[in-house]
Recover the amino acids of this structure.
């Protein structure tokens, strides 16, 4: 190892790798612990499909009311003119 390299420089990646290995081992152990107990509990929750979450508001079965306005023939002609004008601008 060169003289200008501090002992802390090679120890940094080693410490990070060791921390990552420990983190993965703990995570694996936590996920495996009581796996059957949790699986049974979550399966029971999934079967009780009729229960609603109280923290969420009631969802509508259909979408919002659609609003529409009847245009007079003059307004329809003006709208058609604007649409043609905008489409002509895109082509130019």
């Amino acid at each position: 190892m060169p003289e200008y390299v501090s002992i802390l420089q090679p120890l940094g990646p080693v410490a990070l790798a060791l921390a990552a290995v420990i983190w993965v081992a703990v995570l694996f152990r936590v996920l495996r612990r009581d796996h059957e107990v949790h699986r049974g509990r979550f399966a029971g929750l999934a079967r009780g499909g009729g229960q609603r979450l109280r923290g969420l508001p009631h969802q509508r079965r259909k979408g919002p009311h659609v609003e529409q306005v009847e245009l007079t023939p003059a307004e329809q002609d003006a709208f058609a003119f604007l649409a043609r004008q905008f489409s002509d601008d895109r082509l130019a």
